[in-house]
Amino acid sequence: MTYGIDTPGKIIAVHLNYPSRMQQRGRTPAQPSYFFKPASSLAPTGGTIERPAGTELLAFEGEIALVIGTPARHVSPEDGWSHVAQVTAANDFGVYDLRAADKGSNVRNKGGDGFTPIGPAAIPTEGLGEGDWRVRTWVNGQLVQDDTSDTLAFPFGRLVADLSQHMTLETGDVILTGTPAGSSVVLPGDVVEVEVDAPQAPGAPTTGRLVTTVTQGTVPFGDFGTKPKTDDLQRIEAWGSEQEHAEAVAAGRASRLEENAARSTATGGDATASVPLDGLAEASADPAAASPLTPEIRAQLDGVAVATVSAALRKRGYVDIFIDGVHPNHDGDTILGTAKTLRFIPFRPDLFKEYAGGFNAQKRAFDTVNAGEVLVVEARGIPSTGTVGDVLALRAQVRGAAGIVTDGGVRDFAAVEEFSIPVFSQGAHPSVLGRRHVPWETDVTIACGGAAVQPGDIIMGDRDGVIVIPPFLLAEVAAEAAAQERADAWVAAQVANGAAVDGLFPMNAEWRARYEAETAGGQA
């Protein structure tokens, strides 16, 4: 740590302290209450935090952190502040899905690795008062928290004094002093920044911005502990209020809450079986929703034509599974992976100004796509503007994406063509973002090239085109298509040897019996 204490002996956090937060919560405690956070939860600026697999409600809390200088034991509120040597910024992350298991201790929901970013610099308190401080928090560049320490229900000196009645506060111990109103849920790909400063002091000293990027965890919880679960109350508290929750749904950042709730109820309140929120869906993060695209099925589909698989889907009533109008950027490209979705809406100047800047939905999608996923982009079938360029395509390739499919255009086409990642699109167009689209949301059901695509669907493509396979049909469709591909190859060999197609294609009973006899034992 920049303030000289590598590992604090204690990290103590206050539950409620800012009147703005108390009003938001609807309760005003007469005395402060506390909880501990483990030293293993500390994280530096510029780091990442994983939202645990199977959870949906990871919330940030920008806070002013006090660093104890001289030990304090049985000190008075008037003397408490003098034992604080430095002030820095902290982010007290928590997962509301795990609150029920903690009963106020916050061990599970706030004790995870990386759940206490702190820094990047500390400000000496000499010459500064306990009411001189300000804390501000930004999410994706938008200011969401802004409050000052002179409003606190329990001033810093009082916190030090109260805690010193029960334990010795030692040099380097850290006290997190509570968060103001504005705390809310963040999604994988979001960037959270916290800054603490003393704006009225000489030189306006500042900690600098404590930057944390949210990522999606993939390791599921086991059956040997309490599993995550959510309900409407937890969702409202996590988002900040019923209004913020409603606004998040309207903005697409929480567009799948109701689906989550329904599935959670159906599984007895086990949120590990629920579908993650916008921007959060990683099919591999949830064992109950894990991709059926196993190595065995991949091997089974190796060399199988998209046309053959589409015929198997047609037999089952799936006739609108084609992403029409898209073509590969390399001859011979094939694509097979699990869908991760990105949706653009029609351009509107005010919406573009609000939603296209900073770490927008387009950037989030390309920055969080996982290995084996296909990024599928809904561009409303408009070829006359770019939806992906060289930098974003390279980012997807570096992250191991299985490909990109867009029913719009590709900018920097020649540069993208040099990359190895398969890109299926309507072709080249030089325009930048802002001509026809506003990047809107990720990991939601979209319409791409006339086909409905949901996160977790299987995307398969070759020179004939791209199709969407519902996951629950994959195993049986893959088996049937592989068998059909072998039969078609045998038929082609007969035609090459001079056989007429009548009765052979499709095979009548005589030809079928001959085929089965010749291919018995896997000799096809």
From TrEMBL:
One GO MF term attached to the UniProt entry: hydrolase activity
Limits of the Fumarylacetoacetase-like C-terminal domain: 10-214
Region (Disordered): 249-274
Name used for this protein in its record: Fumarylacetoacetate hydrolase family protein
NCBIfam families given in the database record: PRK08245.1, PRK12764.1
Gene3D superfamilies per record: Fumarylacetoacetase-like, C-terminal domain, Ribonuclease E inhibitor RraA/RraA-like
Pfam families tied to this protein: FAA_hydrolase, RraA-like
Biological classification of the source: Bacteria, Bacillati, Actinomycetota, Actinomycetes, Micrococcales
Native source organism of the sequence: Leucobacter rhizosphaerae
SUPFAM superfamilies according to UniProt: FAH (SSF56529), RraA-like (SSF89562)
UniProt KW keywords: Hydrolase, Metal-binding
